[in-house]
Design a protein that fits this description.
Keywords: Membrane, Transmembrane, Transmembrane helix. This is DUF2892 domain-containing protein. InterPro entries: TPR-like_helical_dom_sf. By secondary structure, the protein is mostly helical. Helix content is about 80%, strand content about 0%.
């Protein structure tokens, strides 16, 4: 909703108001205002539109997730670098169902900007490996699968990796 810098300015103003309330002796109001400023600081690091898009994707509602992502007009100005990575990651997940070349561009851009969680990195590399495999780039697909396997510490994607390796043997 707000630009990332506006969120910090609002948080700063609320913190200043909280300090003023502490000086005036209204401790309860000051604590409440500090908690309120924490919300804006949290939303600086985790964009609300991306969080809502993730919730829609958990329900397999791709049009709903796209609607929330489309509300971010200029991701370079509105989002922090890691959030931009997740923005393009989510676009890649949604487009991968229909357009592989565009999804490949989105996933590569997301990896370049950075994703903070290992399983998200593994999922992006697994999708890129699948795209490379469909384009008959076996060496690149093998490399990406090995990287995805290293990043998947909990073994959540073992079945998908195993299936892709079996499919690569046929190529």
């Amino acid at each position: 909703m707000f630009n990332k810098n506006i969120k910090l300015v609002i948080a700063g103003l609320i913190i200043a108001a909280a300090i003023w309330q502490f000086i005036e002796g209204n401790i309860g109001n000051g604590i409440f205002l500090l908690l309120l400023s924490g919300i804006f600081i949290f939303l600086y690091f985790k964009n609300e539109m991306i969080l809502l898009a993730f919730l829609r994707l958990r329900k397999q509602d791709f049009p709903g997730a796209k609607k929330w992502l489309d509300r971010i007009k200029d991701p370079e100005k509105a989002l922090v670098k890691k959030q931009q990575g997740y923005y393009w990651y989510l676009h890649g997940l949604m487009v991968s169902q229909t357009n592989m070349t565009q999804a490949e561009k989105f996933f590569k851009r997301a990896l370049k900007l950075g994703l903070s969680m290992d399983h998200d990195l593994a999922m992006a590399k697994l999708n890129l490996a699948g795209i490379a495999m469909t384009k008959r780039r076996k060496r690149e697909a093998t490399m990406l699968l090995n990287e995805a396997k290293k990043l998947d510490k909990h073994g959540m994607m073992n079945d998908q990796i195993r299936m892709m390796k079996e499919q690569m043997k046929k190529i």
